[in-house]
Amino acid sequence: KFNLEGKQGSIASWKDFGTWYYQNLLTPVSVSTTEIKAEIASLNLSGTTEERVKKIYQYMQNKTRYIFVALGIGGWQPMMPDEVQKKGYGDCKGLTNYMRTLLDEAGIKSYYSIINSNPSSISFDKDFPKMAGNHVILTIPTEKGNIWLENTSQQTAFNHLSFSTTDRNVLMVKPDGIDIVQTPSLSAEQNKEKQTLYIQLNSDKSINGKGKFSYSGAQYDFNLMYLLIPEKDKTEFMKKSYSTLDFENIEMKDFNNDKNDAIVNFDLNFKALNYSKLVGSSFIFRAVPIYKEAVYQEDLERQLPFESRLAYQDDAEIIYELPQGYFIEELPQNTNLTSEFGSYKIIFEKEENKLIVKRTVNIKKGLYSKEKFTDYTSFRKKILNSDNSKQRISKKN
Hints:
The protein has 8 helices and 23 strands. By secondary structure, the protein is α+β, with helices and mostly antiparallel strands. It has 2 domains: 2-182, C8orf32 fold; 192-395, Jelly Rolls, CATH 2.60.120.1130.
C-alpha cells in the first residue's frame, strides 16, 4: 500500500499499480475542450494512421516547449491538456498528455508510457512492481508496430527515440493495468556516421577542405545539439569538436534536420594549418584527419565487467589532392580487423594526383566479462594505430 498526496493505492502487482495510476492520475486530466477539438478539425487530417499521427505530432512540436515540473503530485500527475494548449509549455507528463488528448480527438488510441531516461539501458523488473521512472513518452500501437513519440523536443524526428530511451522497457499505462513493452534497439548500421572529405594539400603544410557529413540513429541525436548553439558560438564549438585539426577557419553550411527519416546532414568548409610535416623535399601527413580522440588503457586489476553501450558504424571516404609537382612514393598498408567487439577496415588507393582513403569502423553493443577488457583495449588501440598511418609524398625531380 502507498499514499501519494492523499491518493491511496496498491503496488502488489503491475496490474494494481497501473489501474490506480490510470484512475487517479490520468483520468482526472483526460479532459478535452472545444479549443482542442477545433485544433484537430483545423488540421484536416487524412491518410494512414502514421500520416495522421505525424501531422498532429509536428503541429504539437511547433506550438509547445518543455519546462520542468516536479513539485508535489505535479511530479507524478500531468497538467490539464487545456493548460498546455493555452500556455504552450509543459513538462514531459503535460506535453505527453496533451498529445494523447489531441490523438483521442482524432480517434487514435495512444498510451502514456513511463520510462527510465538514462544513457545506461535501465529497464523495469517485470516481477517487482514499484513507483519508478523519470520520464514519460507516448506509445501508439498500429498494425505495422508501435509508434514512439518523444514529446519534449521541438527538434527530434517523428517516431524517433533518443539514445537515452531506446533499448529498454516502458510501463504502458492502460485502464486495466500496465503492459511492459520494449522500445527499439538500434543496430550499428542504424547508428551511423558518414563523412566524405575533399582535401587540398598545400605546399605551406596547410590544407583546404570541404566535407559532407550525415548522421542517423543515436548519432543523429548527438548532432542535433548544433541547433541549440547560438551562431556566434558555433565556430568555436566546431573547433573544439574537431580539435585534432589546427583550424584557421571553419564554417558549417546547409545544416538539415530531416524530421521524416531522423537524419542530420551538413557541410563543412575549412582551412587547417600545419597538417603536414616537411622532411627534406617530402611531406608526411596523417591519413585520417578527423577522428575521435580516445585513450584505451589496460586495467589488470579490474573487478567488474564492462559494457560497450552503443553499437555504431562510422564510414569515411577522404580524397586528398596533392600539391602540383608531388607524387605518392608508397601507400600505407591496408588494415582489416575483426573481433567479437566489432570490425575495422581502412584501404589506401592512388589515382593520378589523388590519394583516396576509405575507412569503416563497426562497433558492437555488448556486456563483456572483466577478463576480456585487455582484448578490448588491444582491439581499440589497433584501430587508433591504423588511423594514425602516415602518408609520404615527394617532389618530382
